[in-house]
Amino acid sequence: MSDSKIDFNDIEQWAAEQWGRTCLGDKRRTRRAVKLGEALASQPGEGLPTQTQSWGDLKAAYKLLHETDVTHAALIRPHCEQVRERAVASGAKVVLQIQDTTELDYTNHPRTVGLGRIGDDHGRGLLVHSCLTVIPTTATPQIMGVAAQQVWTRPERAFTGHETRAERDARAKESDVWATVVEEIGSAPLEGVKFVSVGDRASDIFSYVRKARANGWHVLLRVTQNRVVTSADGMRDKLLDYARRLREATTKEIELRGRDGKPKRRVTLKVSFGAVLLHAPQIGSERKQAAIQGWVVRCWSEAEETGEAIEWVLFTTIEVADAAQALEVVEWYSHRWLIEEYHKCLKSGCRIEASQLQSAEALASLLGFKSIVALRMLQLREKSRTGGAAKATEEVPREFVEVVRRKFGWAGTLEQITLREFWRGVARLGGFIGRRSDGEPGWQTLWRGWQRLQDLAWSLQMKT
Asked: Where do the domains of the chain lie?
C-alpha cells in the first residue's frame, strides 16, 4: 500500500498484483499461484484443506508447492521489486529498511525432510531473515512492504573440526545475511531518498556496515561490541565506554511494549550523542579496511526512575549534529518492533508453523505466499490502531461503515462514526469482546471481522 487509504476489499486484484508477474516456468503455474494466494489471504489462519475450495484445488496447491521452479525467491521477487519502486517514488527523504531473523519451528513434524537445527540445536526448522520497508512519518510509520527475505537451513551438525583463521574467515556465516539483504535490494538511489538499514544487536557487524556504505546505504544498529573508536577530540577510546561518558543532551518519552507479564508503559529516557570514527577489527578479514565515520546515540534511564535500568547504545552513519537529530534517530530505532510484529503475525496470524508439508523446500514455497499475506494482516492491524477521532468515511468505503452501524444499532449519521469506533466494530464482528482489560484487537479477530464485513456488505448490495 502506498497511500493512506484502505485497499483491502478487492482481494482478487491484490493477489494478481502480488503473484501475477511471477516467473514459475509456465503461465498456468502463475495463474495457479494467484488463485492460491487469494485463497490463503481469504483465510490466513486456516490450513490448506480449508483454504482451498475443492479436492481438485487442494491437489493443485500441493503440486504447485512441490514444483522445482516454484521457489520462495521466485514467489516474493515481484512484490519486493514493487516495494522498492514505491519507496523510491514515495517522495520520502528517509526510508527505513528494518531487518531481523526468526526461526520457524517444525520440531513436532518428524516426517518433514530437509530441515535444519534451530534453537539449542535440538529443534528442527527453518531460519528466516526478513526486511520491512517502512517510511517514518509524524503520525505513524507507513509499512510499504517486504523488501527482501532470505530462508535457509542450518546444517545438522555444527563445524567441530580444526580450521585456520583464514579458513574461518572465508567460510560463509549466518551473520552475512545482513549484508546479503542490502545487496539483494540494491544500491540506494543517488539522490532524493536515504535508505537506512535498521537492526538489533545481532547486526553489530563491521563488514555489514562497510558493505552497506559501499552500496550508498546508511545503517542504524544497536551496539553490542565495545569496538575501538576515535572520538571527536581525536582520542582513541572504546565505543561503549565513550558513549557512557557523554553528557545528557535532551530527553525523550517513549512507550515500552509489555512483555514478561509487564504491561506497556511510558518512560522518559535521557539522550546523549557524539561523533566517532569506527575502526575495523584488529584481527580477521576486515582488519585492513578503513575506519567508518559515524555517530553514537545513547538513551538510558536509571532503575529508580523507571523500575528497571534501560539502555540503548545506537551507532549510525547518519549525521547527528544536534539534539533534534539525536531524537529523530531514537524515533527511527523505536520502529524496529514492527519487524518483530511481522514475524509474530507470520506465526500466530498465518500459522506458518502449523503446516504439515513434508519437505523444507515446499515449506519455503509456502512461505513465499504467507510472508506477503502476513504483511497484509500487519498493515490492516496498524490501520486499525491509527486515525483515532478521524471520520471513518474518509478512510473506508461508506457501505462498510453503514454495515457496521446497522449491525450494532449505532445512532447518528455515518459521518459521526470515528475510525476507532469503526475498527472496534469490525473486531466485534470477528469475536472481539472489548472489555476494559482486553486491550487492542489482535490479528485473528480483526481479520475474521474484516472478512465477515465484506460478506455482509456483499449481501446488502445484493438486496438493494
From this structure: 11-66, 77-354, 387-462
- Closest residue by Cα to residue 299 from 340, 328, 337: 328
CATH class of 387-462: mainly alpha
- Rounded Cα distance between 323 and 297, Å, is 10
Q: Name residues whose C-beta falls within 8 Å of residue 297's C-beta, 6 or more positions apart in sequence.
A: 271, 272, 273, 312, 313, 314, 315, 316, 320, 326, 329, 330
pLDDT in tens, 11-36: 889 999 999 999 999 999 999 999 99
Residue-wise DSSP of 87-129: HHHT--SEEEEEEEEEEEE-TT-TT-BS-EEETTTTEEEEEEE
* CATH top-level class of 77-354: alpha beta
- What cell numbers appear for 286 in the block? 576486515
Interatomic CA distance for residues 185 and 200, integer angstroms: 19
Residue type, 153: T
pTM: 0.88
C-alpha grid cell, residue 80: 519486493
Residue 305 scores a pLDDT above 70:
no
pLDDT tens for each residue of 339-372: 999 999 999 889 999 999 999 999 999 999 999 9
